[in-house]
Amino acid sequence: MQLKKTIYLSTITAAILTSSFLHAENYVSVEYLQYDESDDRVTVTAPMLSVSYDFNADYNLKASIMYDGVSGATPSYMTNEDGDLFKGLQDFEDDRTAASLLLTTRFENRDELYTGIDFSREEDYQSLTGSVEYMHYLDATHNTAVNVGLSIAYNEILVYDGDTGASAYDGDSGASHTEDSMNYYLQGGITQVLTKDSSVKVAAFIGSDDGYLTNPHGRIVRDYPTQDAILDVENRPDNRLMYGFTLKYNKMLTENISYIGAYRLYADDWDIMSHTIDNDIYIKLTEQFTLGVGLRYYTQSQAEFYHEEIDYFTDEKYASSDERLSDFDAFTYKVNIDFKQNDTFSYNIGAEYYDTSTVTELSATILTLGMKYKF
């Protein structure tokens, strides 16, 4: 079962709340994520180990490795024992191993170059991503910086031939062949320190996906309810152009309260347009405890070749019933607590509740635990 792979560009400091950029530090962190969807649909367990090390003032290397264990069921059209077509929950089980390296190089003028590589592998999918990003300060005060970055990913997808049943979903039977795709992503932006306690970052991006972009596990029904009705594999275009921009604002509201707000516009030539609004507040309760609360709103329009009804598709070339391509709204409610035991050890616990207006009205809870050791 293919887990969605996000292409990451290394980014300059996410929250700039002072007149200079934050520097890297030496640490080892261990994190654990537990994701559970409503109706016992999908469960994900994901432990991760990360290490960051400054070799000197000019070089920092970050490395991480993660393992995902995924099980559950996902909405899919299928046939019952009598050959009747219906939409139910298709069981699946899979795991993923992912690793990444990010090298930061600081030059004499303190400009920074980020060079990264990411690898992810599942039973029927693997991806290799390379990325590079350059950050340049416009003046000696380091209050203004511009950045430009590029990432390229190569993906291999294992497709099982001639089987639209459960065995195709689990990938344990039938002949197969390998398809591939390429992802290209270019981003540029500017970060400006506005005052001693606020900053803003604006960035624009453009990207493309080319190759096999269909979900080989996705199912549609054609010519229902005629006698020629068949269960078929979905089919998506073999290219997609995407573009948009992001805006992030950071502000120290008081000595102990900070705010981070962000907006992202995304659009592509599949007719999907989305808007994401993030609001996060961090409150320093004591010298040891920090409380974080947040709310994210997401909305998108549907792809031009998506339809949810079983009797819609006939001879359309491109067709999908994957509700992730539908129009829907989603809210994510976030809370976390950071505990700093001392200058060496710190801990984090967080919880999120995700609620969507998709056809199946999906909701999910996400729990995270983390420990960081600085040295």
CATH C-level category = Mainly Beta
Strand order of the largest sheet: 1-2-3-4-5-6-7-8-9-12-13-14-15-16-17-18
In round numbers, the mean pLDDT is 90
Distance between the termini: 39 Å
Number of domains: 1
Number of helices: 1
Query: In percent, how helical is the residue content?
Result: under 10%
H/E topology pattern: EEEEEEEHEEEEEEEEEEE
Instruction: Tell how many strands the DSSP assignment holds.
Output: 18
Structural class: mainly beta
CATH architecture identity: Beta Barrel
User: CATH superfamily assignment?
Assistant: monomeric porin ompg
The proportion of strand residues reads over 45%
Biggest sheet details: 16 strands, antiparallel, barrel
CA radius of gyration: 23 Å
Secondary-structure map:
Blueprint: E1 27-37, E2 42-54, E3 59-79, E4 85-106, E5 112-122, E6 125-137, E7 144-160, H1 166-170, E8 176-195, E9 198-211, E10 219-222, E11 230-233, E12 239-252, E13 257-268, E14 273-284, E15 289-300, E16 328-340, E17 345-356, E18 363-374
Antiparallel strand pairs: 1-2, 1-18, 2-3, 3-4, 4-5, 5-6, 6-7, 7-8, 8-9, 9-12, 10-11, 12-13, 13-14, 14-15, 15-16, 16-17, 17-18
